Amino acid sequence: MLWAIPIGIVGARFYHVLTHLPDYFGPGINPWSVLFIWEGGIAIYGAIGFGALAAWIACRRTGARFPALADALAPGIALGQAIGRFGNWFNQELYGLPTDLPWGLEIDAAHRVPGFEQYATFHPTFLYESLWNLLVMGILLWADRRFAMGRGKLFALYVALYGFGRFFTEGIRLDFSYDTFGPIRFNQFVAMLICLAGLGALAWLAKYRPGREAEAERPIPLTAADDEPA
Q1: Cα(229)–Cα(209) distance, rounded to whole angstroms?
Q2: Within 13 Å and on the Cβ side, how many CA atoms surround 60?
Q3: Is 98 helix (H, G, I), strand (E, B) or coil?
């Protein structure tokens, strides 16, 4: 399962490059810069997607049930995202619209988005999303105890809740977005789709896959020798 981590990092970079192609391909741009991950540019959507694919492959190879694994990881993923968002604070990036609220985030002049140099404090979207992810973790732990979630339902709930919160934080961010869908940013549109997909999966699983798995591994089929009496 450890190799899901590097694959997740590759996915995070892949999604970022895919949604920022003009930054990496064009006249005078070094195309090898797509590999310069230390210069920044990763996205959680790609990390979760590629990481989930790697985990699914690992489950197929080891005989573990992927839905059970996904459910077990969901609260920890939310906690990890809550902690990871503080990287935006250290880097003074991905903040929101200007604000004079008491908890406004002070941004150095060198890191202010062009056109907003006259403002000093901005919405700390990293903090909003971090607090939301902590709430998501709490909801997941409560829901699992209260309703005995299983068979992928807890992970589907995580997907829906994360997409819901991300939709709103994306709506106030100031970082440039190449693509928009009407009045909303591309990543905001993706967050909406993720939320709807999570809700749809949760509804389907609740109807057709009720309850929790009896075991976290698939049973190994008996061979002819195993079936013989001792």
Answers
A1: 35
A2: 6
A3: strand
Query: Do residues 19 and 29 lie in contact, with contact meaning Cβ atoms separated by under 8 Å?
Result: no
CA distance 67 to 54: 13
Neighbours of 144 (CB within 10 A): 19
Query: Quick check: 151 and 216 in contact, CB under 8 A?
Result: no
pTM, full prediction: 0.85
Q: Report angle CA 202, 82, 6 to the nearest 5 degrees.
A: 85
Distance in angstroms (rounded) separating the CA atoms of residues 126 and 129: 5
Q: Which residues contact 130 (CB under 8 A, 6 or more apart)?
A: 81, 82, 83, 85, 86
Q: What are phi and psi of 217, to 5 degrees?
A: -125, 145
**Lowest mean pLDDT, pick from 111-120, 140-149, 167-176, 219-228:** 219-228
Q: Where are the beta strands (DSSP E) in 29-165?
A: 105-106, 121-122
Write down the pLDDT at residue 168: 94
Chain position carrying tokens 């790697």: 54
Cβ(198)–Cβ(158) under 8 Å? yes
Alpha-carbon gap, residue 149 to 137, rounded angstroms: 14
Least Cα distance to 85 among 50, 49, 132 occurs for 132
